[in-house]
Design a protein that fits this description.
The complex is a heterodimer of chains A (476) and B (251). Chain A is α+β, with helices and mostly antiparallel strands and 476 residues long. Chain A contains twelve helices and 17 strands. Helices cover 28% and strands 30% of the residues of chain A. The longest helix of chain B is centred in the N-terminal third of the chain and has 14 residues. Chain B has one domain: Rossmann fold (3-Layer(aba) Sandwich). The radius of gyration of chain B is 18 Å and the shape is globular. Chain B is an alpha/beta fold. Classes of the chains: A alpha+beta (476), B alpha/beta (251). At the A-B interface, helix 12, strand 10, strand 12, strand 14 and strand 15 of A face helix 5, helix 6, strand 5, helix 7 and strand 8 of B.
């Protein structure tokens, strides 16, 4: 639970004593948050918990600190995941992932990445994607079918939930089947509103988190706008104002969010990122205007806001006319990254590994030069297949190159060959590689085509590999 | 063919045509291959810098594009600056490129989803002007697209190399379609240089210049790029006529 996770993250020396938080309800001291796996429940008297679990550490609950900390977490999510994020107290964060999920490879990948990163930093989180805030709230906390949710999933005051339970309403399905007017008369309009919000019959805008100090410009229009040229013109005005503000603070933007509020209360968002901090209005405007086709203006846009979500110091820099400067590629990198995605643009750096597919890694395109390469005492192919392709061969064991190979149904007679180059498995990475061996050969057929083939295994001991042959690459 | 190329009357005519085409009067820079047999037959003695060039592989090379990639890497390696390499399928092996003269620090890879995106990224790179060369693996290249790329390259002085590579052998007939590229090369693998011992010698290619604006086409047998991106003239060909040697090896 969030309050416990928060305390655990903040303590310097992690202790393995079970931790619970306690608060007061009336004159009773009860648990307000517990760690999972203790068999304790929220609302249990402290004395009972102490009797059940030995060595229990009890801390006083601090709802204000929890909320402040949750807001900081929400801001972290805002910077990294999606432009519209809000706190869902006491222990939730709601994210409008419209227009942001494709940047992370789809909704499922987004959820997995988010929960994975939270888990790495010690926060246990459950996440769900749904069409409405209410449904996502219920699914993340209770799971299962929307019609079978308990009344607690409806974000209602405890007194209303208790009243519903007293009247025998166990699920949302029961509530949907009941006539609405008597329910409203008894419990007030809140109940029906929450049900409608869950199923998308009533809108529920997310009031996006905007922490103090966030640089934002905003423009409201007397008449809703919709034409691409008009949007482009106002983007230019917003960017100019934002860049002035950034300049007075000596900052540059690393990430910009453009949020368009439509007249039907829907939001359209555009997010762009930069490889290095930027505050050049022409460049920012151009990158934002590239994204105009992704904005659906519908019946018109009423308000546009532009936010610098991530900023970094950007100071003036002394340049010299004596030493020629390397050309600045950051503008090009930004344009390409915003078009094909930041992960699809990279440089390759060497890794000290003999296994060919592990000898390369991707680094950001503007990273510092590594200034080293690979050892070049063996020729390496220009094209390397992601997955080695199996071939049929006839070869003398243990260390002769094949006499012929058959690849993709074509048989080739081998005229010349180099090898074997023996590559041992990396026993420190996986148990299966402890004695694995690959013998690589560079072969040339009658037509002059040069291929890189290998045999899994050393040709003598079956434990070192299957002794099947594969093509791994093509030489130029 | 070499005598008329240096004819002053023809040179003056070319100058006038260039002026009509809207080219700046200043002579275009060229990148010599460093092989006299090749440079002698190219207009102005080298590969024009700041233009679009096309390279494809012959035979199976139309699909794997390995030799063509090496050839392009060799050209890019001999230019100064960073190289942008746009691909649809990421199967380039950086150690192999380094052995063709292009170290990993100099190459920025872009993985675009489809041909259209690759062309857009290539044009963006050519327009920027801070790069030495932009190489892109392209299957279909229309006249309009190639014209855009060529104009972008001319505007910034960045050399563009369209590495034509198809998914199937049958689609390689597309290479006959006209484009606005300055030169069109086909690089096919040949058996390597014979060694006195067992083993594979330095790779050899049949390099064919299929089309060159203001130039003659030719074919020649060459040794593949060394560690600095330079091609070599095979010793057994250097004595005789390259054209007949190429025909002999190909037929």
């Amino acid at each position: 639970m969030w309050p416990v996770d928060r305390l655990r993250r903040q303590e310097d020396a992690p202790s393995d004593r079970p931790l619970v938080l306690a608060g007061r309800i009336g004159n009773r001291r009860v648990l307000t948050a517990v760690e999972a796996g203790l068999g304790l429940q929220v609302g249990m008297p402290v004395s009972k918990a102490q009797a059940l679990v030995q060595g229990l550490r009890i801390e006083a609950a601090n709802p204000q600190a929890d909320l402040a900390s949750l807001e900081r977490l929400a801001f972290w999510v805002l910077q990294r995941i999606a432009p519209i994020v809000a706190v869902d107290p006491p222990d939730g964060i709601v994210i409008d992932s419209t227009g942001a999920d494709h940047l992370h490879g789809g909704e499922d990948a987004l959820l997995e990445a988010l929960t994975g990163r939270l888990a790495l930093s010690g926060v246990t989180a459950r996440a769900a994607v749904a069409d409405t805030w209410g449904a996502a709230h219920a699914l993340a906390r209770f799971g299962g079918d929307l019609a079978a949710m308990p009344p607690e999933a409806l974000r209602l005051p405890p007194s209303v939930v208790a009243g519903l339970r007293d009247m025998g309403f166990a699920t949302t399905g029961d509530l949907m089947a009941a006539p609405r007017a008597p329910l409203t008369r008894r419990f007030g309009p809140e109940l029906i509103r929450r049900i409608d919000q869950m199923f998308g019959h009533a809108s529920e805008p997310i009031d996006a988190l905007r922490p103090a100090g966030l640089i934002e410009t905003r423009r409201a229009f007397a008449e809703p706008i919709g034409a691409a040229e008009t949007i482009a013109r106002y983007i230019g005005k917003l960017v100019t104002a934002l860049c002035e503000e950034l300049e007075t603070r000596g900052l540059g933007a690393r990430r910009l969010d453009l949020i368009c509020h439509r007249v039907d209360r829907a939001l359209q968002t555009v997010r762009i990122g930069f490889a290095v901090p930027q505050r050049d209005p022409a460049r920012l405007t151009r990158l934002l205007c590239d994204k105009i086709p992704t904005i659906a203006p519908g019946f018109g846009i009423e308000i546009m806001t532009l936010t610098a979500t991530i900023t970094e110091p950007l100071a003036a820099r002394q340049i010299s006319t004596l030493a020629p400067e390397a050309p600045d590629l950051s503008g090009l990198i930004d344009t390409l990254a915003n078009r094909v995605g930041p992960r699809a643009i990279y440089r390759i750096a060497p890794v000290a590994s003999d296994v060919p597919e592990r000898s390369v890694r991707r680094i950001p395109p503007l990273a510092d030069p590594t200034n080293n390469g690979w050892p070049d005492h063996w020729p390496r192919p220009t094209r390397l297949f992601a997955r080695p392709e199996p071939i049929e061969t006839m070869a003398l064991l243990p260390d002769q190159p094949p006499v012929w190979i058959a690849w993709k149904g074509i048989r080739r007679r081998i005229k010349r060959a180099d090898g074997p180059e023996r590559i041992f498995g990396e026993w420190w990475t996986r148990e299966a590689e402890r004695i694995a061996v690959r013998d690589y050969f560079r072969i040339e057929d009658e037509a002059g085509e040069r291929l890189w083939i290998f045999r899994a295994g050393d040709g003598e001991d079956a434990a070192t590999g299957s002794h099947n042959w594969f093509v791994h690459g093509v030489f130029g | 063919m070499s005598a008329p190329l240096s004819d002053p009357a023809l040179a003056a005519l070319r100058h006038r045509i260039a002026a009509i085409e809207g080219d700046p009067a200043a002579p275009q820079a060229v990148l010599p291959f460093g092989v006299a047999e090749v440079d002698r037959r190219l207009p102005k003695g080298g590969l024009a810098v700041g233009c679009l060039h096309e390279v494809a592989g012959g035979g199976n090379g139309a699909v794997d594009g390995a030799a063509a990639a090496c050839f392009a890497a060799g050209i890019a390696a001999r230019l100064q600056g960073q190289v942008l390499w746009c691909v649809t399928q990421a199967d380039l092996f950086a150690p192999g490129l380094e052995q063709a003269g292009l170290p990993p620090d100099r190459v920025i890879h872009v993985e675009a989803g489809d041909d259209t995106a690759v062309l857009a990224c290539m044009e963006e790179g050519l327009r920027h002007g801070g790069l030495a060369a932009v190489v892109a693996d392209v299957a279909r290249l229309s006249m309009t697209a190639s014209r855009r790329l060529h104009l972008a390259a001319k505007g910034s002085g960045t050399t563009g190399i369209a590495l034509r590579r198809w998914r199937r052998q049958a689609e390689a007939s597309d290479f006959g379609q006209p484009t606005a590229a300055m030169t069109r090369w086909r690089v096919s693998v040949l058996p390597s240089a014979p060694l006195p011992v067992q083993g594979v010698g330095r790779a050899r290619w049949l390099v064919e210049l299929l089309r060159a604006r203001a130039g003659e086409s030719f074919d020649i047998e060459l040794e593949a790029c060394d560690g600095t991106g330079h091609l070599g003239l095979p010793a057994d060909v250097a004595g005789g006529s390259a054209a007949t040697a190429g025909r002999r090896a190909f037929g």
